[in-house]
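Help! Submission page says 'invalid entity' but I think these are all valid:
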Amino acid sequence: MAELEPGLKIDLTNGEKLKILKEIGRGGQGIVYLSEYQGHNYALKWYTQKYSDDFYNNLKENIQHGAPSKAFLWPLMLTTKQNGSFGYAMELRKKDFFEFGDYLLAKVKFQSISAMIEAALQICDGFYHLHLRGFSYQDINDGNFFINPHTGDVLICDNDNVTAQGQNTGILGKARYMASEIIAGQKPDKYSDYFSLAVILFMLFYGNHPFEGKKVVSCPCMTEENERKHFGSEAIFILDKNDRTNLPVRGVHHNVIRRWPLFTKVLQDAFIEAFSQDLIKNPTQRMMESKWEKIIRQVRNQLVVCSSCENETFAGSDFVSTCINCGRPVEVKYRLHTNDHGILALTPKKIVLLGKIKEPVAVVRVSKKNAEILAMQNLAQAKWIVETPDGKLKDINPTEFLPLEKGLKIYFTQHEKGEII
Amino acid sequence: MGILDSAPVPRRTMVLFFIVDTSGSMTGSKIGAVNQAIREVLPMLDEISANNADAEIKIALLEFSSGCRWIYDEPKTASEFRWQDREASGLTDLGEACIELGRKLSRDTFMKTDTGAFAPVLILLTDGEPTDDFPGGLKKLKENRWYKAAIKIAIAIGNDANEELIKEFTGNMEAVVEVHNIEALKKLIRTVSVTASQIGSQSSTVGNKDKQGQVVEQLKKDVEETEGAYSAAKPAPDPNDDWD
């Protein structure tokens, strides 16, 4: 199958033409070219492997349906079949986005835990919308995500294998990221996506693979047969509560050994459940994105800034937690008990984020006059209404401060309310 | 070290073995093409390795003529590997090379890693008839489990290569490609090394062809697109060698 020369004009199915500018990448499936269409630049993925008519037609349908959410680098335009192959155009990857593999290889790192949490939430939200549409992604792996290390914004790429739930175009992905039933030969679906999603989330937070512990590194030659065993039929979570045969190895699995005890228990419990033998083997019981989002938002609720070292740390449900960086105590005097999003620790510099709303609702500050007094500044566009313990109501307009006091009820919006406890 | 500073994920190692004929018949343009092609492919392998979270690629090279020698005493990453042009002279002791390869395909030597390995890739380049006990050497090699699991490809250079014998090394004719000119030889060394390394150094796909099958499939396409290259399963109808 011919590669495309710069300057070549390629016919699109909409009757227009797209001009090839230069090659910008290549992989196992094909080549990606920088291209131009009606004065704008696009990435054109051009297949060098042979794909079926079903694959082509599925791509056409996906383009008609449009992207499930803004997180997807979704196919926008399809080429006709020409030069022995075909391809599709999509938006270019934005600046400051790096492949997930670059994070795994420690070439790039998250600039904050909040960016890491945001990335995890956006990945869940992307797949939530994809599944809501009745699609499944099929081959989630480390090559499918671009992430901004400062903001945690995510772009999900390689969406050409996305098909309607229950169908499959023959693409099955990589064994390290696949659910055991797919490794055993079943067709991928949303339940196998849930499994791969959990693997990606684990690697994002802990920087190691959830099934690569002692048992797996001591396998001298990871043949295809051994992969099917260690990631499929005999997969054991490295931190499984009941089976200690595949624990992380000191000197090899540095990241998970360091981070597992430091990140909150909420997250530990979630992964222990997600990778329990029960959920590995029972696809329909697996944790859906909405459950993951809820858990990750609880982690976010506990994320605070240490007043001693100024680094991010977690304030757990105990009254006094210890900073994960400097080891000094983190005192939490006030908490916000929300109606829908659990309990947030309110410590100085805490940015209050509620649910799916991306913009912060509030930030906690120390009074300039009295360091003992904490106040919450309204960062939202609209006023809050606050009810004091004796039932009086008052407005807190945008940018105004509310000194914290136990028993205050805050009506952030029509749907979001909370009480200081 | 901050909580967000990570160590790179532990990767498996995938060793790419070149087993190169440097016998007298390789003199001239053949060994020249091998020298150039391997030197040129090293940075490509380095790039594949650098962007691969599944495995790190290392390279080992065994040359055989009268006897055989490893170019370095251990597999090296593509970035460490320094190419020194090989010269050709002597006999074609492929049998001895098989025995030596089997010796190093072992956890005690070349396959020693802290984090395990993927099955290796073995690429044999030869232009002639073995002059020693090749069947005996190969028989011994075939007992080696690393060899059994390996992706195996052979490039038979010119009319004099004995493809029937070379097939014994790869296991089937589809994995043997014959090349009849310099450009085809250089191109095939490059594409076979890149394809086999890409596929060999990744977690496997499931349900599809196995890794060897995927490499062979790509090899077929490369052969179709290369003038002077043929699959040994469908050899050149009228081979017309173009060597100096």
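Support: the input was valid. A stray whitespace character was the problem, and the output above is from the cleaned input. The radius of gyration of chain B is 17 Å.
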